[in-house]
DNA sequence: AGGTCGGCCTGGCAGC
DNA sequence: TGCTGCCAGGCCGACC
């Protein structure tokens, strides 16, 4: 079996989806989808599994692309199968003799014309799929949901400044809003804010140009590091312990509550921002004055 | 209209 | 020990 992607640790964000795309593309591009079997109707609701199959079956895969956290199968004649892994979705590439209906959490099976299968496995059933007919329909779908792609030249300091201007929302919520910047999730938001030395409660519109520049660089660096790290661990994915160590070591503050800050040694705290568990060094990332009176802590009661 | 919040979903685990 | 119930969070839709 060739495992592609993992959700053993953390939620698939841009780097993980990109890793999946990189690994999967050579196996599916140029192949024909013999059968799309959606075994869990929730996956494509409100559309019916048969509708998706009718649109997709028998078509050749021209390209596997990524936009934000979406994985896009572009088939012949502008048929687009758009997948989202959400929280616990995972894609596996397997041979026929490794495939079975008994596999736990199997939601979708894509049978290719070479006998191999791509399996969408998802314990929590948050993952989704939709078929969009026509390039315009795809463009509309993505444009309604996603903003700037952060690993492109379009993600400039000027662009970030324009997005941030006048916004009163906390910067963490801003980073998680896919309609502004596409692909940043909870992990990389924490990592980028730490690198840029910005507190997650900081009001977005009050950030100085220098801070916005630092944040832009930090987002790009964090995502790029995530892609590198993912690539490094994908090969020994079957070795759970090996994958785990390498993956977590890359993160500076995320999920490191109670540990010393890697820069200054102050204990990393867990807060709640934008409804998410949020990790911060409040010496490196000083809490903004306006937020100091707000609830000082989230789910954690123990603060060293 | 921009911002906030609950619902979706289930494995894992804290707490009784 | 075994059960209950809460937590995790990306995205969407309801609400203010």
Count of discrete domains:
2
Largest sheet: 5 strands, antiparallel
Return the structural class: alpha+beta
Beta-strand content bin: 15-25%
Fraction of residues in H or I helices: 25-40%
CATH topology of the largest domain: N-terminal domain of MutM-like DNA repair proteins
Task: Please tell me how large the radius of gyration is.
Answer: 20 Å
Overall outline: elongated
Class of the largest domain in CATH?
A: Alpha Beta
Neighbour order of strands in the largest sheet: 1-6-8-7-2
**What is the oligomer described by this structure?**
single chain
In DSSP terms, counting alpha (H) and pi (I) runs of 4 or more, how many helices? 8
**Uncertain regions spanning at least 5 consecutive residues:** 1-9, 231-245, 293-304
Distance between the termini: 45 Å
From the 3D coordinates, which CATH architecture of the largest domain would you assign? Alpha-Beta Barrel
